[in-house]
Design brief:
heterodimer; A: mainly beta; 7-stranded mixed beta sheet; 4-stranded antiparallel beta sheet; B: mainly beta
Chain lengths: 118, 112
């Protein structure tokens, strides 16, 4: 059974760095073709894909967030991570991680809400 | 970035009615290998999106066959043949042919 669950700080101040963890089970990020992605959802911008990390450690980022994103993984512990620097109120959103199984995002976590406020 | 335009933004339906949602892309979603990375997701209230259709017309695992997808190039359609109460929520199309992946703004399906 595939499950994913996001965890994060809940609230942080502008200019801080957001650190998110995706803990998953039921699959391995060392399996060929497997990937974990991060997607966020805000009332203002809808669903926005942020980044993917692949089984071979290839990483892809949404250029709109320029150099603010860093994605990584810990295959041994079945976790993926996302850091976003210089957070702003516009980054307030629910952040999801999802499994990409060769062709599609098939399983999503329940999401973690992140509020940026001073 | 590829812009996906969904219509309508809101859809009112009765139980048993058949409905369609359109997703139009600002660029062709056919890649050089002949694949079209167009997906449909349903987000029920308070839940995360769930996969309905992948690669334009393939049914996701466990998805009822009243859902179907069609289209090519820049024009795609999701059809629900006989809406059921559990189908209510927001439907999104998504493309992964061109980086960055992008989503449509969503179509809210509600009961009439």
């Amino acid at each position: 059974q595939v499950t994913l669950k996001e965890s994060g700080p809940g609230i942080l101040q502008p200019s801080q760095t957001l650190s998110l963890t995706c803990s998953f089970s039921g699959f391995s990020l060392s399996t060929y073709g497997m990937c974990v992605g991060w997607i966020r959802q805000s009332s203002g911008k809808g669903l926005e894909w942020l980044a993917n990390i692949w089984w071979n450690d290839d990483k892809y980022y949404n250029p709109s967030l320029k150099n603010r994103l860093t994605i990584s993984k810990d295959t041994s512990n079945n976790q993926a991570f996302l850091k976003i620097t210089n957070m702003d109120t516009a980054d307030t959103a629910t952040y999801y991680c999802a499994r990409w199984d060769y062709w599609y995002f098939d399983f999503w976590g329940p999401g973690t809400m992140v509020t940026v406020s001073s | 970035d590829v812009v996906l335009t969904q219509t309508p933004s809101t859809l009112s339906a009765t139980i048993g009615q058949s409905v369609s949602i359109s997703c139009r892309s600002s660029q062709s979603l056919l890649d050089s290998a002949g694949n079209t990375y167009l997906y449909w997701y349903l987000q029920r209230p308070g839940q995360s999106p769930q996969l309905l259709i992948y690669l334009v017309s393939n049914l996701g695992s466990g998805v009822p066959n009243r859902f179907s997808g069609s289209g090519s190039g820049t024009d795609f359609t999701l059809k629900i043949s006989g809406v059921e109460a559990e189908d209510l929520g927001v439907y999104y199309c998504m493309q992964a042919t061109h980086a960055p992946y992008t989503f449509g703004a969503g179509t809210k399906l509600e009961l009439k």
